[in-house]
Amino acid sequence: MLAWLAYLTVAVVWGSTYFAIALGLESFTPYGMVAARFSVASLLALGLGRLRRESWPSAKEVGHLMIVGALLLGCSNALISWAELHVSSGLAAVLAALVPLWLAVFSMAKQPLGTKGWLGLLLGLAGVCVLVWPAGGVRVHGGSLIALIVAPILWSWGTLHGKHFVHGGGLLTNVGIQMATAAVIGLAAAPLLGGFLRGPLTHKALAAVAYLALFGSMLAFSAYIYLAKAWPPAKMGTYAYLNPLVAVLLGSLVLHEAFGLRQVVGMAIILGAVALVQVRARRADGAA
Q1: 107, 166, 169, 220 from 61: Cα distances, Å
Q2: What pLDDT does 41 receive?
Q3: The model's pTM
């Protein structure tokens, strides 16, 4: 039950972060936002970890945690934020949804997915395309396209690296180390890549970064790290198909964006694909 709660947290909260990132980029540069959100979130996580008297990971595991933080947050997250300056959120959502496919590819030697599992992953990606693909075509920016292809690869690789090499330390302490690594990267990279701000500092941008720090980072990233330990990679990675679904629902309910037959069909395909992968993974777990 705790794993399912973590899964739903990641699916729902990260489904709202596309919009929050867009608001944050009104004032912050991509690495300025990385520095701000992960500085706050890492201090909170490490502080709560000390209050809970969590165990500290070994020196070797601290090194691996820093690698994971650099790959997931300092690189992958920053690449997606930068790409959203130049391409539609629809295209960003489609390519970010490649995470479960890359997780399955990187882990297939130890945890083969099977025909039904692969069918579910591909069907889920098709559902995301139907759900969020821009009606007027795709506006392509070469550098952003490369960034959005590289980002899910780094995210998947970093996730599996942590799953394989980090086994000690408390959850919040480990998460805090990863986010502190990203904060240091952001603080170092921002002055070299356009500074911390790209426009006047607005209340909307500050609220967006605060939301990203507390909910997108502190809450959802902690849930993600827990989930990565609890579930097989491909099963866990299907959260990436649900993120655009949540984003479209929020856009319809809060911003009154268009919601029609195409969105309904896309959601149905995604939910069917997630169910297919989840059932396949549950049977594989039972057989093992």
Answers
A1: 21, 6, 8, 22
A2: 96
A3: 0.83
